[in-house]
Design brief:
about 90 residues, DNA polymerase, domain 1
């Protein structure tokens, strides 16, 4: 599958998680960073999306330790949460 098709599928999966909170966190992360991802980073995100939202969100909010396979730059960017819009 070519890069563009992979990214389109990932965008759909990132924005259709089942809860608004997960959509904003995971979809917002995708929107903010995906354009610059390498093939390795795309594969990391694909693997992440296979997991339950409760774990992804707990890692992003740092309420649970991140497993080694998901630790690193990509998760650290997700943990900043600076890509999630906040309404006032």
């Amino acid at each position: 599958m070519d890069r563009e098709t992979r990214l389109k599928r990932l965008k759909f999966r990132a924005w259709h998680r089942g809860t608004k909170e997960a959509d904003l966190l995971i979809g917002g992360y995708y929107d903010h960073y995906a354009a610059g991802w390498s093939e390795e980073e795309i594969a990391w995100f694909e693997s992440l999306l296979d997991l339950d939202d409760v774990h992804i969100m707990a890692w992003a909010m740092q309420t649970e330790p991140v497993p080694d396979r998901f630790a690193g730059d990509m998760m650290e960017r997700m943990q900043r949460l600076d890509f999630v819009p906040v309404s006032k």
